[in-house]
Design brief:
By secondary structure, this protein is α/β, with parallel strands linked by helices. The protein has a single domain, classed as SPOUT methyltransferase, trefoil knot domain (Alpha/beta knot). The chain has a 5-stranded parallel β-sheet with strand order 2-1-4-3-5. α1 links the parallel β1 and β2. The radius of gyration is 15 Å and the shape is globular. The mean pLDDT is about 95.
Length: about 150
């Protein structure tokens, strides 16, 4: 299984880049991983922005890709829950597991309908750059839980 992290937005800011690189390297010991930054729409209205970004995302998704959407309306799970979700997808012979961080205005309903699971990191609102780092760390933590390593303490 390959893990992909897609994020609508600009390149990683310098203050976050090193952390993302470190966790990406750590995850790669368990699964192949890549990042895809999706160019945000330049439209003026939020509904048009979300629609254009959705069209861009949907045309890049393969029918058998498993899409995990990060969205404030999603279900909250803990770190062992994320580990179980990743293991479940691996057990189902998922070829590509995609985690999607939407744009500044979120995602439109087409993406929400296409998502196989919608996950909320927190009830708090975070900058997208920070969500990237949090997501990379949590995926690594999940991998270490699955490998029964010491990184995660219960």
């Amino acid at each position: 299984m390959k893990i992909s992290i897609w994020s609508v937005g600009k390149n990683h800011e310098a203050y976050i880049k090193d952390g993302i690189s470190e966790f990406t390297k750590r995850i790669s010991h368990y699964y192949p991983i890549d990042w895809q930054l999706i160019t945000p729409s330049k439209a003026a209205q939020s509904n048009i922005i979300k629609k254009e970004e959705a069209q861009n995302i949907l045309k890049q998704l393969a029918p058998n890709d498993v899409l995990i959407l990060l969205d404030e309306t999603g279900k909250m799970i803990n770190s062992p829950g994320l580990a179980n979700l990743i293991q479940q997808k691996a057990n189902q012979s998922t070829q590509k597991l995609i985690f999607l961080i939407g744009g500044a205005y979120g995602v439109n309903d087409e993406i929400k309908k296409r998502a196989n699971f919608t996950w909320s990191l927190s009830q708090l609102v975070f900058p997208h750059m920070l969500v990237r780092l949090l997501l990379a760390e949590q995926i690594y933590r999940a991998c270490s839980i699955l490998a029964n390593e010491k990184y995660h303490h219960e």
